[in-house]
Write a structure and sequence with these properties.
two-stranded antiparallel sheet, 2 helices, 46% strand, alpha+beta
Length: 172
């Protein structure tokens, strides 16, 4: 037979365990925070070979909340003109200031087929490309935020020209 103080001790331990479980489960909840907005600000060709191309993406992350959001990293996929184009991950930590924004640069990788499909679109004379950027911001204690943004961006810059290298200019 269990003594009364043993039952109380068990009840206290059970309640504490339940309480900690609930608090741990709440770590992924955002407690009324609005989702940050993630949009594609720029895309540049970094390098590539016959099978794979790498692009540098500049993402603008806007925080509509009255608290800073520490971002530990992100993962994403990028569709352009209705078709899958690239995917990537980033682990560069950044703090998105309250009621502010930050630029995050990440690398995206694509295969030859996706690249050639977009190159054909450029050959048609398109000066803007429609995109859809889907992924997740990893925020540690806040759990993370999913994002899904559509928009348009200027045609891919620097095709055949690695980022950081300036095109030749004429001097007189």
């Amino acid at each position: 037979m269990i003594k009364p103080e043993g039952r109380r001790r068990f009840a206290v331990l059970a309640a504490a365990t339940l309480g900690l479980s609930v608090l741990g489960g709440c770590a992924g909840f955002h407690f009324g925070l609005q989702k940050p907005e993630v949009s594609l600000a720029d895309i540049r060709l970094l390098d590539g070979n016959l099978l794979e191309q790498r692009f540098l993406l500049s993402l603008r992350v806007t925080n509509p909340n009255n608290v800073d959001i520490p971002v530990e990293g992100l993962n994403f996929t990028l569709d352009i003109n209705g078709g899958h184009f690239a995917r990537g991950v980033g682990n560069q930590p950044v703090v998105i200031p309250r009621l502010g924004e930050a630029m995050v640069e990440v690398t995206a990788t694509t295969g030859l087929g996706s690249f050639l499909r977009q190159f054909k679109e450029l050959a048609k004379g398109r000066d803007k490309m429609e995109y859809r950027l889907k992924g997740r911001l990893v925020t540690g204690n806040l759990g993370g935020f999913d994002f899904d943004r559509s928009g348009d961006v200027g045609a891919l810059k620097g095709l055949g020209e690695p980022a950081g290298r300036k095109p030749p200019s004429e001097q007189f």
